[in-house]
Here is the input.
Amino acid sequence: MIASDQAPLGERSLDLAWFRRELEQEREFRLEQLITLSYDAEVPCSVAVGEVRAALTVGARRALAEIDAALFRLARGTFGACELCGRLLPGQLLAAIPTTRLCLLCERSHIQHDM
Here is the structure.
């Protein structure tokens, strides 16, 4: 459940407890993944396997940082709003990707700017 009468944000409200639980579960998964990868790194392996482990570790660390940032936005009271323009993020987008921090318009302009 993502919609409720809890924590009004603009014209709609979000069930922040639901998002917090989802993010905390994902955080726990990423921490366990990093622990497993660190133990696996101690086992000798081929160069290719080592490269895959390194890529997985980088991805897990990046995901963990995004989760921590989303939890910080929850604590700060800005979860569900675009970090650049302040527009409300669609509830469906947040439910699918709770770490989302930009609205689609800002995301597009950010991507185009980087190119």
Observations:
- Strands lie at 3-9, 12-14.
- Confidence is low (pLDDT under 50) at residues 1-11.
